[in-house]
Amino acid sequence: MPAARVLPVAELVARARALAESGPRQLLGIAGAPGAGKSTLAERIVAELGPVARLVPMDGFHLAQAELRRLGRDGRKGAVDTFDGGGYVALLRRLHRLEPTSVWAPQFRRELEEPIAGAIEVPPQVRLVVTEGNYLLLPEDPWDEARSLLHQAWFLDLDADLRRGRLTARHEAYGRSPQQARAWALGSDETNAALVAATADRADLVVRVAPQPPPD
Question: pTM of the predicted model, to two decimals?
Answer without folding.
Answer: 0.91
